[in-house]
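Supplementary material to the annual report.
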Amino acid sequence: MPEQSNDYRVVVFGAGGVGKSSLVLRFVKGTFRESYIPTIEDTYRQVISCDKSICTLQITDTTGSHQFPAMQRLSISKGHAFILVYSVTSRQSLEELKPIYEQICQIKGDVESIPIMLVGNKSDETQNRELESSEGEAIAKKWKCAFMETSAKMNHNVKELFQELLNLEKRRTVSLQIDGKKSKQQKRKEKLKGKCVVM
Amino acid sequence: MRDAPNLPQLEGNVIRLHRLVETAELRLTDGSAAPCSKQVKPLFRHFRRIDSCLQPRVAFRGSDEIFCRVYMPDHSYVTIRSRLSASVSDILTSVSEKLQYSEEQGQREEPLILVAVTSSGDKVLLKPDDGCIFTTLGINSHLFACNRDELCSLVPLPEEVQLPPEDSHIHRIEAEDLANHLSAFHWELFSCVHELEFVDYVFHVERGRRETANLELLLQRCSEVQHWVSTQTLLCEAPARRTQLLKKFIKTAAICKQNQDLLSFFAIVMGLDNGAVSRLRVTWEKLPGKFKNLFSKFENLTDPCRNHKSYREMVSRMRPPVIPFIPLILKDLTFLHEGSKTFIDGLVNVEKMHAIAEKVRTVRKYRSSQMRLDTDVSPTHLQNKAYVRQFQVIDNQNLFFELSYKLEPSAQ
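Predicted assembly:
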């Protein structure tokens, strides 16, 4: 059976309500909404370039509550890169990332070769800020991962976040940009796909 | 899942999508939903947790909440929380909410449609007021939400079943354990079915409601076991092992019959009778004569000729507890229902009602005493129990034949 080895899987973790889905939806669909719907598990697929060919970027948006430890372990073991999101308005949400980071270390072993991005979201909420960006940076240094502050609401640093994460991947070249030639092929493929097949 | 063979420590925790069963408590961390500590039952195949699949099954009600994955044409998916009885339009509302379609309504006039896509690519467009659809889906079918013009471009998800490693669970488990775990699980599922579900299933047009989830799950499981038997046999590449496997399945069927679990018995025999399995001439020839004879006896018992005469004789000799072959009860009920009118000149056809009640009463009789098989709690026992409750199967007949021809090419 065909194995989808071509997929590059990014998993987004973080406490409930920090804006994981908002970041993902802002990136994938370019939309933002104020209302809150707790996520159980969603996965979005996008075509990106990888080692000069096309591959699928799979972004898995996980639940913020800790009710499915087995699901979490599976997501980690299947994931190639991780985004750990906290909200700059909640110190607690940064604390909650620690066990997740530890679990990634435990399952993946050598974390230094795995792209991990620590993300402080809601950077637009200056009034409610509980954490300075220096605090996030310090944790990122300790965890030997990259760090960024974002705002899904203001669309600040969202695309950069995903691009930066892919840049961290050293085992293959992955990029959001698809070079011209391939994208034409892709377009053609999509065009063909859109046509009805009479069996 | 594909990594499972490489990660033995994870094997037990492997969550396969598209499988059934088990209960989990959803404790939402946000304040708004905090008072709601209601149980959410992840319906089949959507979430599997080893710890909860070991818990005894509880009957489903229409108001129960379940998790369900809905796919997009590009195989992205969202997981929604839904009542088991939710209508198709309710499901679509949750999906569009999640995808934030509501915010761009200006540009988006076109409503989404919900489609069930089977593993072989067959599509069924679901009507907006259809309800309780989750339990009616095929084993490896998925729900897709899309625009009407995307309908013909929908492709099924890639098959998730891979070649099992040489020492896969099926080869390690003893036929007796296999049979007893099957019977114990099917007894649980059978016990969850309310008598009225049989009536509702057949009379759903008149009764105007369909709360038959538990019955549908049992039917689904019956077909799952069938497909599992075919899948395991066809995924076994070594010829000698394959013959061993046939032996094991025949033995298992025999013990299920002894347990008076005729549902598992039928399912296993039908799985072995699948055209793609029965055509493996070389494999069957290597089977010892004793097993060949036993199997042909079993085939006689499941033979539908003379309205399942041999099965009916066998079951009439059994004393409760019995797990009957449910599809036959439904067939009998359907004949009773369609063969005579419910009202004659505005009066109720009492004779018909009596006949239906009599048939439903046989179910009561079969369950009038408890089936007890499951007592051991050793780790291997628990592993076996979890294995039996979470089969991974292929339900695509074309793929079955493809595998079959690879194992034994046709003679010409």
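Chain B is about 45% helix and 10% strand.
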